[in-house]
Request: fold
Amino acid sequence: MDGAVVSNVPYDAARALGPELIVAVDVSASSVLTADAQDEGFAGVFARATEILMNTLLEQRVRTWTTPPVYYIQPRVEHVTMFSFDHLREEVEEGYRATAAALDRTDEWPEPGDVGIYPKRRVMVRVERERCIGCGTCLVHGPQGMFVLDSERKAVVTQPDQEWSPMDGGYIRHCPTYAIIARPADQAKEMRRSG
Reply:
């Protein structure tokens, strides 16, 4: 079900049914997070602001989530813009495909008694110094103490190795210059080895 802007992934409604596990499939568009919204004029900026609002509300709801555990699936539909309503079939099919693929990854699913949002993955977080403008947004939106500003007023990550659920790392989207990067830990290690 879709709760629109206020609760676009309604975990609380699912919890009211008394399940042992919630499977959430979120087909929210995310293209505005990777595009330069300011280049698209008011519509692009408005779409990005609306998406940030929706995601922030969702993150606040799940920040202290305990039970039942949630397995969160976000299909790859980022190319579909937020206000495009003619891709419904594609989004449903991609949601089905992503869910079927998740069912094959049984090692990622929560065990009885687990709490929180799944799947959990190790990631490496870094800041691209040339893109950082020293605005301090990461200090406000990131976990306390995770970022500091160095002597050149560039953000530095104090704890680059993180364990994330799909709902973590929301502060990345608040960076106005997209300077914060998170990669799966194994991919980040491979990139360092290859130079």
Q: What stands out?
A: The chain has a mean pLDDT of 82. The helical segments are 11-15, 41-62, 88-103, 137-141, 185-194. Residues 1-118 form one domain. The two ends are 45 Å apart (CA to CA).
